[in-house]
Amino acid sequence: MSAVVTGVGVVAPNGADTEAYWSATLAGQSGLRHTGAEVPTRSPIRVAGVARDFAPKRHVPGRLMVATDRWTQLALAATAQALDDSGIDLDAVPEYERGVVLASSSGGNEFGQREIQSLWAQGPRQVTVYQSIAWFYAASTGQVSIRHGFKGPCGNIVAEQTGAIQALQQTGRLLARGARVVLTGGTEAPLSPYAMLCQAQSGWVSRASHPERAYQPFDRGAGGYVPGEGGGVLVVEDAEQARARGARNLYAEVAGLAATTDPPPSSGRPPALRPAIETALAQAGTGPGEVDVVFADAMGVPDLDAQEARTLAAVFGRRAVPVTAPKTMTGRLYAGGAALDLVTAALAIRDGVVPPTVGVVDPAYPDLLDLVSAARPAALRTALVIARGHGGFNACAVLRRVER
């Protein structure tokens, strides 16, 4: 069985829908902004990727607005786009053969903070009943499944930045077990004051105050990453069934997937990123020389950037494959990050262009990486998407152009 992506939807800091995001990305237009009043005074984080063009009320009914966190509202909007893009007639798909597997990381933190403030300021009677569900990690999966009548197997993956690739792994398993169509991907809305203060404690988040210099992975001036909100949702189907229904989009085949966990820092063993890459390539039946572009994880933390650069050079050879990190225009979206990279890779394969990395002015690894700094036309057949997350998570996906 071969799984293919037949629809995509995006909400991102540099575009509130797929085409707006894609146009801005190819043009190198960043959605990173100085947060100003949106960040608590005591937080050291001064730059974030805020989806300012996203208007929830345009996408979410009023009855759901009061019952959902912004993170779930982002997922509902991206899902509606993806389903519309796929052109699928859901009435022709039994509702128990429709599945949903989304990734989440911090859950409904904004909703939760608001309700806790109400509890302490006004008492328990002012806490909405929806607090019991809106914060929960599976809330987006649940709300999406209810809204669109997906009553088949559903799930939620919590694995920080790698979550959407691991959700895609689960999607493949569901299709193999008889699901006809699965919605997968992930979103994140980690910019509430409480969430920002929590993130700042990691020491990995950039404290720069200038958006154009705040997130510079693989740069000598790298000082951490910028958090952002948004993500993507993909419609995934069995290739034969997609062709049989006359799917108008066959963006890419999901050719290979792998996930690993790093050993403890004190073990003396190397990080597990390379095994993740090599396992995904092996599953895809693809050699390193057949990969046309790598969407890097690009943490922006010097030690972790060095690990990734050296790993890519070891697997592919020095400067042997174009490497890009479009997330420099959105920030790292946690559960939405790999989802957005998967959508971006699918669009890149469709249009034959490598999107750029922005903000890198003094490359730290020019001898190791062919880092793409401006949109580069290319005949793309195979793309590798890499994701790493806090806690030692690694995940990789190989997407391949579908031959019609």
From TrEMBL:
Is Lipoprotein one of the keywords?
A: no
The entry's keywords: Acyltransferase, Transferase
- Indicate yes or no for the key word Acyltransferase: yes
Question: Which stretches make up the Ketosynthase family 3 (KS3) domain?
Answer: 1-401
Q: Which family does it belong to?
A: Belongs to the thiolase-like superfamily. Beta-ketoacyl-ACP synthases family.
Kindly provide the name given to this protein in its UniProt entry. Answer: Beta-ketoacyl synthase N-terminal-like domain-containing protein
Species name for this entry? Phytohabitans maris
